[in-house]
Design goal:
Elements: E1 6-9, E2 11-14, E3 17-25, H1 43-68, H2 76-86, H3 89-102, H4 106-122, H5 127-131, H6 133-147, E4 163-166, H7 171-179, E5 184-187, H8 195-202, E6 207-209, H9 214-217, E7 223-227, E8 232-235, H10 239-262, E9 276-281, H11 287-292, E10 298-302, H12 305-308, H13 317-330, E11 336-340, H14 367-373, H15 375-391, E12 396-401, H16 407-426, E13 436-441, H17 444-448, H18 450-453, E14 459-462, H19 464-472, H20 490-506, E15 509-512, H21 520-528, E16 533-536, H22 541-548, H23 553-563, H24 569-580, H25 582-586, H26 588-593
Parallel strand pairs: 3-4, 4-5, 5-6, 9-10, 9-16, 10-11, 11-12, 12-13, 13-14, 14-15
Antiparallel strand pairs: 1-8, 2-6, 3-7, 7-8
Helix pairs in contact: 1-2, 1-6, 2-6, 3-4, 4-6, 7-8, 13-15, 15-16, 21-23
The structure holds phosphoenolpyruvate and magnesium ion.
């Protein structure tokens, strides 16, 4: 009899609670592929097998793409990147060379090549680039499956409602699993930024990654509870736990639906103070979901993701134009659409352009600095934005620059934008001059000069993700210092208070698009400090709107005033928890975030 109630933990990356039977999928390294030495005369046979397998694998991806065409969550761009990798000449040459020089069969040569490349990738410090190795592994696993005659869809035929347990999943497999209506995903490897997670979010599949001990403790068919909020798995839960989680999961589904129905109501507090809740988007096709989840505008469109998962030429104006055009085409109107110029460098690298490595990339030539160092790329993007805007002149368009550090830097960027505007008008484009220009406040220095910046900006958006990392000297992606990454640190709150006051005095709009706005206690404090506009990933919007409707501004202002006299983040959190009591416990917003 199996052991009951074994708890496993990882990182919950897609919220939701599901109960189901485990279906195990082994990756490239677990499977006993047919590896054998070959006679010299077999070389050409193996080369042929390899080429046929490349073509067949390419076609499998093409078939998946076709099946998905037209779906709003179409991640075709990722599949295209995998198709390009399959036909990459360096990869093919490397495998072919090994077949001939080492006299090994195609499967073995693929595995050897994967091993050689893994060594190279593991030496790379940057987490994002390291994670891209998983793409290569997915492509090679597909090749191996094809070479060994396994069905291309074998992996994707789990029992209905299964919870998939895998070393890692390729985006293509995740798409097919999502379409096969599995109920959740657990992976041993993988980080928050992996493509698989992006797709799992699009399919709203509760997912926990980084469950390192999954294969030690989970067997095929085991009953599992997966809690994608907390990043928790329970293996073989007893009947009592199952009923507790089943009730919780039903409650959440019902609540989700009820909240979605109310999501279109305007955001406001219980006393009727309007609070705008906008959406953060990483891809243009998320805009439909954003509207469905009650977004009153787009507070942040991260334009760089297009170049991180897609081999697009970032210097090509047409690419930017097309992307923003698709975004605006789908926006049914109502509320602003905020485009952020590309925020690359640091931990975000495009697939194509080679950026020089820096000793300290977070403090190096990233974001707006990178854009200003490459004005032809910056201009290509800004011209693309404006040309797309010309097609939708009634959209309330906002363009903002990330990581603004000084007034001079902002003025330089703004001048480049205005120069693009003048050039386009001279070229005969009819572009309204109604677009607004703003700065992200995500550096401590920028927060402190908000009054000076306000003279030149139409609006501000607080980027708390970076602000916290720079103000507290805590890498936002390093789990060893994650406990020190505290948005409620009084130093952060005081800077936010200063910026909100400066904006109010200058009559400049101010909003927040960092993830701090997705947590109930910080959001209430921001409200108490005077913020009336919050931008967050669409999934949080119904929860945020619902919770805001339960609080009275006067009370929150009073609590906030006291909270800001307290010395530490822990004190502030404890005080707010105690003061809000059951109201905080009862909010589903806090439930989906309780980690
Ligand atoms: C931020 O820093 O808060 C932000 C919204 O930008 P990003 O997360 O893309 O750095
Ligand atoms: Mg940022």
């Amino acid at each position: 009899m199996s052991i009951r109630n074994v708890y496993l933990f990882g990182q919950g990356v897609v919220p939701g609670i599901v109960i189901g039977r485990a279906h195990l999928i082994q990756g490239a390294s677990q499977y006993a592929w047919n590896q054998r030495h070959i006679a010299p005369e077999e070389g050409s046979v193996e080369l042929d097998r390899l080429r046929q397998a490349v073509d067949a694998s390419w076609q499998q991806l093409e078939d998946i793409k076709e099946q998905l065409a037209g779906e709003s969550k179409d991640p075709g761009h990722i599949l295209e990147a995998h198709q390009m990798m399959l036909r990459d000449t360096e990869l093919q040459n490397s495998i072919e060379k090994l077949i001939i020089s080492e006299r090994i069969n195609a499967e073995w040569a693929v595995l050897r090549t994967l091993g050689l490349w893994e060594e190279r990738f593991l030496r790379i410090e940057n987490e994002y680039i390291r994670e891209r190795f998983s793409d290569l592994r997915f492509v090679c696993t597909r090749l191996l499956r094809t070479l060994s005659g396994q069905s291309a869809t074998e992996v994707t035929a789990p029992p209905p409602d299964a919870i998939i347990v895998a070393q890692e999943l390729s985006p293509a497999d995740t798409i097919l699993l999502g379409r096969n209506a599995v109920s959740g995903l657990i992976t041993v490897r993988g980080g928050k930024t992996s493509h698989t997670v992006i797709i799992a979010k699009a399919f709203e599949l509760p997912t926990v990654v980084g469950v390192t001990r999954a294969f030690e403790h989970v067997g095929e068919g085991d009953l599992l509870v997966l809690n994608g909020h907390k990043g928790e798995i329970i293996v073989n839960p007893d009947a009592k736990l199952v009923s507790v989680y089943r009730a919780q999961s039903h409650r959440m589904i019902a609540k989700d639906q009820a909240l979605l129905e109310k999501a279109h109501l305007p955001g406001m507090t219980a006393d009727g103070t309007p609070v705008h809740v906008l959406a953060n988007l990483d891809f243009s096709d998320e805009i439909i979901k954003a509207k469905g989840h009650g977004a009153e505008g787009i507070g942040l469109y991260r334009t760089e993701f297009l170049f991180m998962v897609h081999e697009k030429d970032i210097a090509d104006e047409q690419v930017h134009y097309q992307d923003v055009r698709e975004l605006l085409e789908r926006w049914p109107g109502g509320g602003p659409v905020t485009l952020r110029s590309f925020d690359l460098g640091g931990d975000k690298f495009p697939l194509t352009a080679q950026l020089g490595r820096e000793a300290n990339p977070a403090l190096g030539q990233r974001s707006l600095r990178l854009a200003l160092a490459h004005p032809h790329i910056f201009k290509a993007q800004l011209r693309g934005f404006l040309r797309a805007f010309a097609l939708f002149p009634h959209v309330e368009l906002r363009i903002m620059f990330p990581l603004v550090c000084s007034v001079r830097e902002f003025l330089t960027a703004r001048e480049i934008l205005l120069e693009c505007y003048r050039e386009l008008v001279t070229e005969g484009h009819e572009i309204p001059d109604t677009f607004k220009i703003g700065a992200m406040l995500e550096l401590p220095a920028a927060m402190m000069i908000a009054d000076l910046l306000a003279r030149h900006c139409h609006f501000f958006s607080i980027g708390s993700n970076d602000l916290i990392q720079y103000a507290l000297a805590v890498d936002r992606g390093n789990e060893k210092v994650a406990h020190m990454y505290r948005g409620l640190h009084p130093g952060i709150l005081r800077m936010v208070r200063h910026a909100i006051r400066a904006a109010a005095e200058a009559g400049v709009d101010i909003s927040i698009c960092g993830d701090l706005a997705t947590e109930p206690i910080p959001a209430l404090i921001l409200l108490g400090l005077g913020l009336r506009s919050f931008s967050m990933p669409p999934v949080f919007i119904p929860y945020a709107k619902d919770f805001l409707r339960t609080v009275h501004l006067a009370e929150i202002e009073e609590l906030t005033a006291h909270a800001l006299t307290l010395p530490c983040a822990d004190d502030i959190e404890a005080f707010m928890r105690q003061s809000l009591g059951d109201r905080l416990q009862d909010t589903f917003w806090s439930e989906i975030l309780e980690k």
